[in-house]
């Protein structure tokens, strides 16, 4: 049986692929475990300095696999599953101090949209889409989908997207800030990998600090954020890459960052 999630290492990057194409990469327990394990490997491998997340086949992820819950599972058990499975997974996305680029091929729907927006950066095509499909089957957002969307586009637009149940195609995603780049359909993964390689030779520690700073700032005031930034900066002050960056600047040459 094929693994639900594949991990390939290419020089200093990892490409993580959701691999249930016959189900449009619908989310079941194997897929949740596979993403968790793959992100853990990428986090702990010092050679990996950037990550790409994509889907195999025609779509990025169609959302939760409706066959996961049997008829005997109570609403409370479903609630507990969402908290126990999605909460730690989303924390892993955000606590990973390496950039994650989503190569959003096709549609990212339901909790798959949450996975897409949990990536730090995104590459889409005009045909790619974010779809908050929850309302179409009588559900509200879950897996952090409301938090992620509201912080990207603001309350009113996020609510409009969530209750309309319509696809937000690539160009509108770009206009709303839901994606960073629009490329040709067959260039999505290739472009994301190229971008990951470019980031992998940047100062990885500093990128991780910037990621932590941005996340902290969304829920804290200016004074607390300045203090948090200063504390995070301690690691940068002691880093090889700071010394290299300053030296390279003085010597007027390109810096050779090692990510530490």
The CATH homologous superfamily of the largest domain corresponds to 2-enoyl-CoA Hydratase, Chain A, domain 1
Mean pLDDT: 95
Instruction: Report the CATH C-level class of the largest domain.
Output: Alpha Beta
CATH topology description of the largest domain: 2-enoyl-CoA Hydratase, Chain A, domain 1
Number of domains: 2
> Are there runs of 5+ residues with pLDDT below 50, and where?
none
Q: Count of helices?
A: 10
Distance between the amino and carboxyl termini: 39 Å
- Give the topology string: H per helix, E per strand: EEHEHEEHEEHHEHEHHHH
CATH architectural name of the largest domain = Alpha-Beta Complex
Determine the structural class based on helices, strands and strand pairing. alpha/beta
Q: From the alpha-carbon coordinates, what is the Rg to the nearest angstrom?
A: 19 Å
Shape summary: globular
Strand content: 5-15%
């Amino acid at each position: 049986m094929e693994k639900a999630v594949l991990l390939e290492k290419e020089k200093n990057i990892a490409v993580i692929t959701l691999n249930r194409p016959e189900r449009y990469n619908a989310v079941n327990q194997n897929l949740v475990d596979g993403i968790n394990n793959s992100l853990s490997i990428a986090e702990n491998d010092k050679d990996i300095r950037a990550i790409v997340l994509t889907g195999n086949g025609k779509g990025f992820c169609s959302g939760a696999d409706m066959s996961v819950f049997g008829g005997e599972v109570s609403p409370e058990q479903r609630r507990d599953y969402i908290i126990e499975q999605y909460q730690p997974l989303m924390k892993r996305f955000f606590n990973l101090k390496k950039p994650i680029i989503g190569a959003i091929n096709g549609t990212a729907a339901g909790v798959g949209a949450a996975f897409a927006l949990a990536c730090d950066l995104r590459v889409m095509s005009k045909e790619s889409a974010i779809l908050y499909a929850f309302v179409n089957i009588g559900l509200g957002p879950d897996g952090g989908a409301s938090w992620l969307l509201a912080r990207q586009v603001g309350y009113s637009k996020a609510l409009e997207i969530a209750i309309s149940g319509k696809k937000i195609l690539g160009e509108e995603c770009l206009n709303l800030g839901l994606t960073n780049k629009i490329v040709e359909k067959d260039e999505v993964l290739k472009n994301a990998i190229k971008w990951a390689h470019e980031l992998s030779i940047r100062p990885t520690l500093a990128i991780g600090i910037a990621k932590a700073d941005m996340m902290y700032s969304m829920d804290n005031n200016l004074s607390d954020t300045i203090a948090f930034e200063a504390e995070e900066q301690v690691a940068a002050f002691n880093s090889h890459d700071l010394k290299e960056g300053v030296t390279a600047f003085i010597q007027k040459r390109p810096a050779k960052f090692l990510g530490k």
